[in-house]
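How a chain folds remains the central question behind the approach discussed here. For one protein, we set the task of working out the structure tokens from the amino acid sequence alone. The sequence in question and its structure tokens are set out directly beneath this paragraph.

_____
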Amino acid sequence: MSRRFDRLTPYTPGEQPVDKPYVKLNTNESPFPPSDKAIAAAKAELERLHLYPDPTCGKLRGALAQRYGVTPDRVMVGNGSDEVLSFAFMAYGDAGVAYPDITYGFYSVFADLYGLDAKVIPLREDFSVNVEDYKGLGRTIFIANPNAPTGLCLTLAEIEEIVTANPDNVVVVDEAYVDFGGESAVVLTDKYQNLLVTGTFSKSRSMAGARLGFGIACPSLIQDLETLRYSTNPYNVNRMTLAAGWGQLADEETTRQNCQTVMDNRAYTTEKLTEMGFDVIPSCANFVFATCPKIEGKALYLKLKEAGILVRHFDTERLKEYNRITIGSRAQMDALLTAIKTILEA
């Protein structure tokens, strides 16, 4: 391998053990299947798999444009939002990039992969983003909103402060979890030419296995990203995924209901964990980030795994006492809570 990558530390995805059945609350997947319309649309493409997919992703781009109130030339479709983010690092990283020290782990991987100068900005003690830290940086800014793994969310006004304070640099807002209580910045993309918003079908739209994401920005930014897409893999999204994405968008009511159920289960889980002595950070995502003084974070993670329940543990100094817990069905959350109660009593 090229020596350029000798020191590259790859992204670590959530574990996927197969040694026994698990209650899987570690990768922020939806507990619900895709819409029936998405499944039917994907199945209809089975007999056309001998043909390449539409490289323009035209039908899906049109549906996304209609859903978010923009024109199709302001939409890009990617193989997961990770691909859109990767192109953004490539396209706008020459002057350097900036992002929080605790956020989505792929940002640091992309910065290293493309040899970019990265300014890593510490979160406050309470894990919140200080907007003042992101003003006038002179580099491309990446903000996950809501943030991961904390679940904390900036307001739309705070996002706008960051965008207006960096008029000569692109600000990328990663909205993977926005449908669970956040406020989307897509409405600002018509006003600001330096704002790129990315989204995904993996969380609220129950399509993590399909790998489908998108970006919304002014036409010139989208054209930049499309240039990179056509220079790497113009057939980046397969026929079945494109069709499933269109079908899922045709059933936004199901998506809305599923999101509400997750938010209700999040409130329920937060209440029950708090009653057991946990400190739970207020979340606008489909997960909670929690710590308990009665047990070390890693010990709880390991004991839950023994009990057949997976949560996500980050073994770093600031995060080691916390675990990120995906919000699943009520039955899954009750299984988690029962296991935690048994562990604490022991």
About this structure: The longest strand covers residues 195-200. Residues 145 and 175 are 5 Å apart (CA to CA). The two ends are 49 Å apart (CA to CA). The first helix runs from residue 36 to 43.
